[in-house]
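All the exercises in this workshop are built on plain-text protein records. A learned vocabulary of local backbone shapes supplies the integers on the structure line. Once this layout is familiar, the rest of the handout is easier to follow. An example says more than a description, so a record of this kind follows:
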Amino acid sequence: MPVKFTVTPKKDPRDINAAPKYYATTKSDGRADTNAIAKSINSISTISSADTAAVIEAFLTVVPEKLADGKIVELGDFGTFRVSISSEGAERADDVTARNITDTRVIFTPGKRFKQMLAIIEFQKETAS
């Protein structure tokens, strides 16, 4: 099934008077929660949906713990997760402390399987109804 997209006008923030340009924006087709993922895994394996859901819940507990310990979480061909930060600058290296950190986020880098999917993904423009 192709990923749908819509067309969105966006103004250039550097030139508010310029005419907007139009960009493709993905449109999600709902959500797949833990239970939906567990049921999909169950349909292609011998593991029950309940056992799969329990493993996914444990995974969702362990991965943030590993990231909080400063680890890069490697999931083979799936990809990697790592913590990234932004900080305020200082005149001297000695002046930089944890208080300089202004933002924390998790970066996901796709692995081989994701890159293969991204190379073959199909898109379909959503028409106005």
Q: What stands out?
A: Residues 33-62 form one domain. The mean pLDDT is 93. The radius of gyration is 21 Å.
